[in-house]
Amino acid sequence: MSDMLSPSLLFAIGLFAALWLLAGLWAVGRGIAMQRRSAFVAGQSERLASLVEASPQLPVIVRGDWRIEASERLGRWLGLERGPRNFDELRGIDTGFDPAGHDALRQAIIGAQRGAKPFTLSIRPQGSARTIVIHGAAAPQAVGGPGSVLLWLSDATDGQQALARAQGERDEAMAAFEALSGLIEAAPFPMWFRDTSLQLALVNGAYVRAVEAASATVVIGEGIELCEPIAGISAAEAAEQARVDGVAQTRTIPVTIEGERRIMRVVDIPLAPEGGRTIGIAGYAIDIQELESERGAHRRFADTQRDLLDRLSAAVAQFGPDQGLDFANQPFRRLFALEVDVIAEAPPFARLLDAWREGGRTPEVRDYPMWRQAHVDWFARADAAEEDWLLRDGTHLRVVAQPTPDGGLLLIAEDRTEQVQLASTRDTLLRVRTATFDNLFEAIAVFAPDGRLHLWNQRFRRLWGVDEGTLAAHPRVDVLMGGLADRLAKPNQISIVQEVIRAATLERTQRVGEVRFADGRHFDFASIPLPDGNALLIMLDVSDSRRMESALRERNEALEAADKVKTAFLSRMSYELRTPLTSIGGFGQMLQAGYVGKLAEQQQAYVDAIMDSVGVLGRQIDNVLDLAQGEAGTLAIERAAVDVWKLLDKALGDAQGLATSEKIELVGNLSGNLGSIEGDAPRLSRLVAGLLDNAIRFTAPTRRSGGRVLLHAEGDAKNVEIVVSDNGPGMPDAVAAVTKGQQAATSSGGIGLALARQLVAAHGGTMEVMSEKGQGTMVRVSLPRGA
């Protein structure tokens, strides 16, 4: 049988076996490949399942028969015990969807099944705080088969809470924005906002009123700017500068507000949220017109105050809160030797103390650092500090340091050196006054305005016999004087003393009085009001004066009787002399007139000599009468216009004969402006004639040659001055005594000068006589033009 197997059969069997082997090898390779693919697919499925499980969204397939394919997570989301397998299992009693939400989801799925319409629902499971958002649409055929719907469920709890918070924050932001907008709108000053193009995008009501526009829309639409260009810079350019710099820009410029020019502080603020890109420029303008006015008024007040401080005698300096010197008036600069450039540097107070110490302008102290710190601490004091500084040069300073509310210091230094010296002088004067009071001859007491005894001297105490203790108690005047009435001869006169003191203290009037003590002494007293309100009582012992007065009164009465006898004698004698003289003159005139026949030349000369003597004697008698009337006060002067030049010229002519006979040169120097005066012409003529006669007669005995008498006269609008001078021997002592008003006279010259003085005085004028032995005499008479 074996032999029957042919090679072809063997070949066929071998080929079949080879093919079978190849098929087996292919099947094994194919199985291995499929196994590998199956493992890859399984891995991919696991990874997809893991991704789906980790995804925030949960896929759910609802098949046409309402079976559900979903992860177990769905049950946990819905609060179910296990994952639902049927749509109805999505609704529970206290878990799952509530009936309304379950029905709404069913209707949405039915709509998706019928019209392939996608939907979105937001449902909150019962008894849970979750919010589940469901997105549904028809599922692909390969996924769920016909009628299946694919649902994507997502837990929107955190998102909803975040949305709620965002909505709350938005509401708060909107409320804040509304409040801010209301605040901006209600702001009393203009505010605005510029967008990125620097155009006005928002303005408030104050802005609209300031530019006098109809509305904010008109302002924004027309771009009405509040601030006009200043120095070539517009409002938009100022805002651009703020945006470029990234910081707020402030300007103080004049702005027209509601038609009135005001000073405004304009601020542009770039707005860049969290350092990002600038989204716009906000701005506002504050009216500082009143502030600038007050600031200007404050500056003017400060300048005025400093000008006033410069005029004070006290030294004043102001230090700021930094303890630097702000101001020092001129007395302070002089007192502490401060230069203007030093003040400009505003040196601190401590450094000034060091400089003053070097210059000897601080007192010498044992521990200067401690003293210095104590004075620097003046700035922190709550009250003022006062000190007395005694400097090395003897200057006494009163220093007052007053802290100011701003933390500075006001330093006042007063130079009291003169006051201290005056106080020392006053103390010395008081001691001198006390010693003087105690050693005065008068008794002195000072009473206060309330009537109490204030001061007294020892003579006052001894006068009234009062002990020192009683006076030291400063008794009232009524109490003091009431106990001293027995010292007076008439005790009731003590009331006069009290009344005089009361008049000086209360009525401020001066009173005088006189009292006599029981021992016979007489005292004059007076009360004098003093400037300080006190009254000074002075008592003077006039006992000796009273005795002398009595003796003088008796003598005066005797002299008056003798004077009356003398006056009567002169009057009688003048009358007795004038009567025969008149007869002699009358008969002489008859002889001169030739009533008894023509006289021989020698006889005529005798008659002329008789008439000259009659004239001289007549004048002497008139002088004696006038002198007697002048001494008795009965000299009558007639007032009439008198030509002074003619009167003096006639007097010169009348005296020329006597001067020639005595060989005396008589010179007249009469001014042309003498004019006239009101007076008694005959008596003025006798006045001048008597002066010339005296001058010629006193000069002649010693000046036989070279004798000279000068009559000089000049006048002004009020007076006429007449001067008679000579170069004679001067006036004798007796005559000089008469010119000084004494009653004795030893010559006609004395009587003439005494009469001349009386005549001048009767005319309201003055007469001055100057004489020096061997040099001559000058008489100057000044007469007023009017009465």
UniProtKB/TrEMBL annotation:
<dbReference type="Pfam" id="PF12860">
    <property type="entry name" value="PAS_7"/>
</dbReference>
<dbReference type="InterPro" id="IPR000014">
    <property type="entry name" value="PAS"/>
</dbReference>
<dbReference type="InterPro" id="IPR003661">
    <property type="entry name" value="HisK_dim/P_dom"/>
</dbReference>
<keyword id="KW-0902">Two-component regulatory system</keyword>
<dbReference type="InterPro" id="IPR036097">
    <property type="entry name" value="HisK_dim/P_sf"/>
</dbReference>
<dbReference type="InterPro" id="IPR050736">
    <property type="entry name" value="Sensor_HK_Regulatory"/>
</dbReference>
<feature type="domain" description="Histidine kinase">
    <location>
        <begin position="572"/>
        <end position="787"/>
    </location>
</feature>
<keyword id="KW-0418">Kinase</keyword>
<dbReference type="InterPro" id="IPR005467">
    <property type="entry name" value="His_kinase_dom"/>
</dbReference>
<dbReference type="InterPro" id="IPR036890">
    <property type="entry name" value="HATPase_C_sf"/>
</dbReference>
<dbReference type="InterPro" id="IPR004358">
    <property type="entry name" value="Sig_transdc_His_kin-like_C"/>
</dbReference>
<protein>
    <recommendedName>
        <fullName>histidine kinase</fullName>
        <ecNumber>2.7.13.3</ecNumber>
    </recommendedName>
</protein>
<keyword id="KW-0808">Transferase</keyword>
<dbReference type="InterPro" id="IPR003594">
    <property type="entry name" value="HATPase_dom"/>
</dbReference>
<dbReference type="GO" id="GO:0000155">
    <property type="term" value="F:phosphorelay sensor kinase activity"/>
</dbReference>
<keyword id="KW-0597">Phosphoprotein</keyword>
<dbReference type="Pfam" id="PF02518">
    <property type="entry name" value="HATPase_c"/>
</dbReference>
<dbReference type="Pfam" id="PF00512">
    <property type="entry name" value="HisKA"/>
</dbReference>
<dbReference type="InterPro" id="IPR035965">
    <property type="entry name" value="PAS-like_dom_sf"/>
</dbReference>
